Amino acid sequence: MAANLGANLAARALLAVFWLLQWLPLPLLAPLGRALGRLLRLLGRSRRRVAETNVALCLPELDPAARAALVREHFEWLGRSLLERALLWYAPRERLERLIHVEGDIHLAERSERAVMWLVPHFLAVDAAGTATQLFQRKRVCNLYGTQSNPVLDAALKRGRERFGLAELFSRRESVRPMVRAIKRGQPYFNPSDMDFGLRDAAFVPFFGQPAATLLAPSRLARSLDMVVQPVVGELLPGGQGYRIRFLEPWTDWPSDDAEADAARMNRWIESEIRRCPAQYLWVHKRFKTRPPGAAPIY
């Protein structure tokens, strides 16, 4: 009881700090975030090792000095993305509309007679991409989210992501049926699906030449519901300029009748986007945690 009370008080204090941070100009908040990232790299030894391992596996063409520099830069962007949640959760709508720069066709879901799946890899501006779908188009969006262990933080995360009234979040711990019903009603599905969730409804397909447990659900869901699949990429801009959210051309030959081939194609596309902006991919995620039978652990 006392431990839970202390954790909840700490969470409320953190949220109070976030509420204060949203008043700072982004050119001031951004360097604070980079400083936080440098601190996290020094103190978070386990996550630093995960990032170093991932970069070494995925980008072996880089020499050790270049890999180390990439990991340092990644943590600076990571610190920014964490602190700038303050803006996404609390800043006024008008300010966010100035900071989030949308490229491409964000209005596809409004025009389409078929439901739309936004396929959104885990770059560090993924939350800004989610906010963009609430600010710049008019259809209610559905999304799965990972429930947080602390109820205060969980409620704040859900409230922050739904605060403009055009998002409906469903917990990954619950049945997907309510979300499927939302898609059938025509709601676009914001789908960040490039994480290792184990082998349930997944297969080992290459990711930078490494076998990676990759969800088959995006392909199967899109096929079963006849969805249009539009890839979306979020990017933090340097110098406190805000965010670039790119809504790319929808894929015309995805999904196919081969979910594993679709997963492999999705991974190849993510690889190409990572090479475009390597420091902003979520390298601290244990992407290769699930291993093929007989394979040695990576982390």
Walkthrough of the structure:
- The protein is of the alpha/beta class.
- The chain has one domain.
- Helices cover 48% and strands 17% of the residues.
- The chain has twelve helices and nine strands.
- It has helices spanning 2-21, 26-43, 45-58, 64-83, 85-90, 93-99, 108-111, 126-135, 151-162, 177-184, 217-224, 259-276, and strands at residues 100-104, 116-119, 141-145, 167-171, 189-191, 202-207, 210-215, 228-237, 242-247.
- The strands form two sheets. Strands 1-9-8-2-5-3-4 form a seven-stranded mixed beta sheet, with helices on both faces. A two-stranded antiparallel sheet has the order 6-7.
- Helix 9 (151-162) links the parallel strand 3 and strand 4.
- Helix 11 crosses helix 12 (259-276).
- The protein is globular.
Domains, number: 1
Q: What structural category characterises the helix and strand content? A: alpha/beta
Major sheet: order of its strands?
1-9-8-2-5-3-4
Q: What is the N-to-C succession of helices and strands?
A: HHHHHHEHEHEHEHEEEHEEH
Report low-confidence residues grouped into runs of 5 or more: none
Q: What is the rounded Rg? A: 19 Å
Mean pLDDT comes to 94
Q: What is the first-to-last residue Cα distance?
A: 34 Å
Major sheet: 7 strands, mixed
Number of helices: 12
